[in-house]
């Protein structure tokens, strides 16, 4: 939408009436993605929550949903969205022209019929705005570009700003979007292209090359090893670790008719699901970000899907949840719901900044679970689940699980001990060694 001079603050688009909400589509130049998401992810427009609903980063067409938009409901309204203030301004009601118009701020407005033509380049109109010298950021945060990853990066930014007056100044923190191999290759299962490290490798490389200062990761994507010269000393407070069941026609897995297809790319979810409900079918390689998978569900590709509740909460999208699976029915992935922040091992300044954000209870639980995973040498090819928490007595309760991919065999174990680092590491390792011994050779081949 803009030519990338970095000075524009407004985007122009069309809102189309759609029952209780509007779907809004806007073409955006890739260099302006960062600023767009800053204005939309987990922010409010005129007091209403805005969710990214669809994400297509090829040209880029963005679609987001605005619930209960506080504007009248003509067929199509034109508006300007100011990304700095998140205010929505109505320009023209009942707009139906198919021509391109120029707003007084120099932006290009496009009507809904043209907006539906994907991958069509829009003529650009240069804004008459003087260039502004960019302030050098004190912290550059590296992150993937998905809506969830960006929500987590902005959560980190907000906590950093609250922790230090110098970081609260405008321009003190910059968010750098890094496209990983795992984001680029969606047509193959993760295991076939190298495992979960594909969501962190490019970010780690940018960290080591001093292109960013800290990296924000979903901890369940982080391999059990860290690259040399990096440390991960900080975990933010953990979100809800449970999985959510989402369907347009059923309220729970038990309500699905035999033969129903459930979409999930997770072998952990697949094996536990088929163990309890062998009459169901699983569509594997059901990959993509939250918005993509929900779109596939709405398009009828599957009858249901399972998603991490933590991600839906961070995106303010829990209205899609049909029910929440109890931990007894679906043990979560190792480190599910946890955010980790890494920096270079020789960067004492960054380590001090992020240490202020660390939630020690979460850090210890994640360490216990990752010790379990490391012992099992777990990867995306092996269905493994593990969860450590503090019980009512203040002790650590750890539960671990391994399963055959088809769900016919499931082995579980548990440990209880002091909620202290050394004790919890030993619990995770011991539980892993037990399950390795019980599983025996060839267990994961079925």
TrEMBL record:
Keyword Transferase in annotation: yes
Domain of life, source organism: Eukaryota
Biological processes per GO annotation: chlorophyll biosynthetic process; protoporphyrinogen IX biosynthetic process
UniProt keyword annotation of Plastid present: yes
Pfam family membership, one: Porphobil_deam
Pathway info: Porphyrin-containing compound metabolism; chlorophyll biosynthesis; Porphyrin-containing compound metabolism; protoporphyrin-IX biosynthesis; coproporphyrinogen-III from 5-aminolevulinate: step 2/4
CDD domains attached to this UniProt entry: PBP2_PBGD_1
EC number(s) per entry: 2.5.1.61
Compartment(s) where it occurs, according to its Swiss-Prot or TrEMBL record: Plastid, Chloroplast
Sample GO molecular function, one term: hydroxymethylbilane synthase activity
Keywords from the UniProt entry: Chlorophyll biosynthesis, Chloroplast, Plastid, Porphyrin biosynthesis, Transferase
Domain Porphobilinogen deaminase N-terminal: 139-351
Matching InterPro entries: HemC, Porphobilin_deaminase_cofac_BS, Porphobilin_deaminase_N, Porphobilinogen_deaminase_C, Porphobilinogen_deaminase_C_sf
Cofactor entry: dipyrromethane
Domain called Porphobilinogen deaminase C-terminal: residue spans: 364-436
One GO cellular component, as annotated: chloroplast
Family (UniProt): Belongs to the HMBS family.
Reported function: Tetrapolymerization of the monopyrrole PBG into the hydroxymethylbilane pre-uroporphyrinogen in several discrete steps.
NCBIfam families with a match to the protein in the record: hemC
Name of the featured protein: Porphobilinogen deaminase, chloroplastic
Organism: Mikania micrantha
Phylogenetic lineage: Eukaryota, Viridiplantae, Streptophyta, Embryophyta, Tracheophyta
